Every structure is written in C-alpha cells, then in structure tokens.
Amino acid sequence: MRRCSPSSGRFALVATIAALACAAPAARAQTDTLSTDLLEDLDRQMEAVKDSSEDLWQEYQKYRPEADDEDTQTTGERVEIGNDTTIAAGETVSGDAVAIGGTVHVYGKVEGDAVAVGGSVVLHEGAEVDGDAVAIGGRVRTNGDAKVHGQKVSVNIPLPFGWMHVDRDGDDITLRPSRGVQFVVRLLLLGLGLFLTWLLHLLMERRLDATSRRVEGEPGQSFLVGILGLLGLPIAFVLVSILLAITVVGIVAIPFVFLFGIGLGWAGFAASCLAVGRRVTSMRAGEGLATSGGSSRQLVLGFVTISAFGILTLVLHLVGPAMGPVTLFTGIVHKFVVLFASTLGFGALLLSRLGTQLPGGAPAYVPNRPWETATPPTLPPPPPPAPPAPPTGPVE
Questions:
Q1: Segment 243-265, tens digit of pLDDT
Q2: So where are the chain's domains?
Q3: For the chain, how big is the Rg over CA atoms in Å?
Q4: pLDDT tier for residue 335 given thresholds of 50, 70 and 90
C-alpha cells in the first residue's frame, strides 16, 4: 500500500481549494440566472392573479348594487319614500323592505315582506323573500333562482280618484300629479297671489294709488327706471348684506332685507294692477273712481287682466297634451306680461319715492305708518259771509 507523504497531501488540499475558487463565479452566475428566471416567473403569476382578481371584482360589482351602509348584515325594516329600496347581495333584512313611490330591488334576503307602493318588486338572481312580495301600481318580477316563500301580489290599478298618474319605464315607475290636481294647485297659487296683492294694497293703499298714477302718467320713464332698479337691486342687496354681516344683529336682519326687496317688487306689480284696473274701469264706465271700495275692485280687475294669459294657460293645460304648443306659448306670454308689469310698477314706485309723491311733484297724502288709514288734512272753516248792506233810500 502506497503511503502519501505530507507534501503530497498539502498539494492535493491546495489544488482542491483552487478548483473550488475557480468554480465559485460560475456557480454564482448560474444561481443568479436561476433567481432572475424565478422572479420573472413569479411576477408573471402575480400579474395574472391581479388581472383575474380585477375581472372577478368587476363581475362582482356588476351583480351587487351598492348598499346603504358597509355592514353585510342589516336588522330591522328598510323603508324608502320617493326612492328605490335595494337589498344587496349577502345582506339580510330581518323585517320588511318597503318602497313608497319607488321600486324594491332584492339581491339578498328579506325575512319579512317586500312591498312597493307605486312601484315594482324585482327579485334578482339569488334573492329570497320569506314573506309576501306585493306591488301596488306595479308588478312582481323574479329572475333566475329567486324565491318567494309567500304570495306574489300585483295590484296594477290607478290610484284613488285619479289624483296621481303613474309613468312606467320598464321597472322604474314615477308618480306625478294628474292634470286635474295640477290645475287645482296652480289655481290656488294664483288665488294666493291675488290675496297677497290685495293685502298689500290694504296696508299701503295711498302709496299704491300715488304709484299707479305714476304708471299712468309716466309709463316710459317708469319702465326705464324699473329696469335700472331691478338690475341694481341684487347689487344693493349684496352690499347691504356685507355691511350687516359685521355684527350679529346685522346677520339676523339680512333675511328681512331680502324680504323687503321682494316686497318692493310685489308693490310695483300691485301698482300696475291698480293702474290697469283703473283704465279698464274708465273705459267701461266713462270715469275712474278712487274710493276705497272702488280701488279694491280696480285692483282685482287689473290683476285678472294681467293674469289673463296665465288663466288661459291653466285651462289649456287641463284640456290635454293636444294643446301643448299653444299652452307653452301662452305660458311664456304670461311670464313676460307679469315681468313687464312688475318692472313698470317698480320704476314708478322709485319715481314716486315709495308712493309719497304724485306726478308733477305734488305730495301725496300718506299716513305715518302704512297700515293706518290716511285722512285728508283738516282745513279751517271758511269765514262767514258778510252781512248784506243796508237798503238806501230813493235817490231824489
């Protein structure tokens, strides 16, 4: 057996170390290549997972409408008035799901009843209703494997007395007042306008009488001043509001300043009504009376005359959609007539210094407070007539 000398063993050890040192860079390079390929492969897999996750999320959002809150478990009833009621997928309502004037969409589970008044009940795929599904003024629809353990009731009849009209667009149902109800409401609003105009005339009769005289005597100048006044009124309101906003009391007074501006415009409209009524009365009777009762009748007559196109619009709207273009035209004319009368009266109100001055600069009789009844000034009694001269004798 051959024995190895110490020198030969040391040589072999050195050779082994040198070989390992030479092989290390190659092994490291191979390891780096493997690591790079592995990372790229992992990146591709992560991108694929991300893409598939986004597709699944979009598909999930397509079939799951947004819930009103973040909880997936909801207790109690769900009631909406004027809006749709939506029970999302995975959501459970322990009570009833009700929509008044809307549609009930069920994607999850309703342990009570699903009721829609003036709408439909739509059960989407996977939905479940333990109670009844009732639609008044609509219908009950089930899609896919939706389940209703109770009864399905659809009452597709008009509402009582025809007060409401139901517009259906698929599953979306909109309630709107019928033409008769709209006519009554607009007629009441017109009557309210007449009442407020009469009340304003009652509070400041003499001022409105002086303003209406300006409307009759200086219509062109009144209209131009009215246009400038209406254009400057918002600017004045903003400036006054800024000044009042400095103090707390001023902030409280800002709404009253706004109401004061509206009152001025309404007073101008009332003055125009009074002037038109006086002119119509003069044409019919040959003379214009200015008494208290006569001025009230003239105000009402003028209001009806100015609002004639508005009244005609109400009647045409009641007839039906066949008069649609004519109704639109008369409505636009009515708005222009009211705007013209308000502008004319507002300008006359400014020219008359809020009804304190008659045309020509003559002062008007106005009370200290607008709700007082004005009385003409008391004049001293005229001196008694002189006694007759004594008779004289005949002249000889």
A1: 888 888 888 888 898 888 888 88
A2: 73-177, 181-351
A3: 44
A4: very high
